[in-house]
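Fold sample X.
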Amino acid sequence: MIGKSHTGKSGVTKLLSEKLNLVRIKISSILEDFLGDHPYTVSDIANDHLRNGGTVPDDVLVSLIIKRIQLADCIDNGWVLEGFP
């Protein structure tokens, strides 16, 4: 789900996830899930960018999104992505 700020993206993805039993994936949640001591190597790259005061590059975010949608809950239920790009 993409769109301009304050257009209802969060509300629509929340509604979709509730009505269709989809996993709601938010970029902020992915970063929380995969940063820290996570064993996935791309997590280290994202951590380095954030520690140095930068932002996580899109290619790294894409890798994290791909890793997230490969988890069992997304495979079993489907998913909706909010907040990217």
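Fold sample Y, listed below.
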Amino acid sequence: MTIKHHHKTTPANGGLQSAHVSAGLVDKHVELFSFNGRLMGTNTGHAVSFDKLPKIAQMHFASMYETAKNDDAILEQTIKQEFNCKTYWSEVEQWAICNFGGFDKDPDYLLHKDPQKEYWKCGYRGKCKAEGIVCKPDCVCNNELSKREVEIIKYISEGLQAKEIAYKLMIEITTVRTHERNIHEKLGCNNRGEIIKFAFKNNIIF
């Protein structure tokens, strides 16, 4: 007797649905990530170095880098100086690391679509001279958030109150409250819970 299975699209318990699988593991998309300072990418089930990714994907990021250079006259000089890039492709790779180095389920390369530049914990936040020049996370730039406002968002996401944030940053409580008011306006948030949700969604956490 032949048994027919009619629920092929329903995963078994413990399985993975497409919404939970990182790009490149089972498709032709690419998810970039930094590994020991090197730029890697997942594609068709393999993790390979950036130079081994499909040429069309490499050229896509090169094109984005060129656009970024056109938008900021000091980007190229900064990336060469701060990261000691000797070749054009080392510049492209470093720019991609700074903007797409975090590993998540959203593809960094999707044909004919520019990815969102990420805010990820590279280990140099707050002390890198290239911050805000080479790396420009969309969640920060699109909302015109300052470095101080991003810092305060991080503390809010930890549950700290204005007095505690003021102590941490060695500034006046009134200054913290002014920053919070500006954050609410820029993000269109009505309360701290919405700021925390924004922080976790965009990885703006300590």
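Sample Y note: The first strand starts at residue 31 and ends at 35.
Also: Residues 155 and 161 are 8 Å apart (CA to CA).
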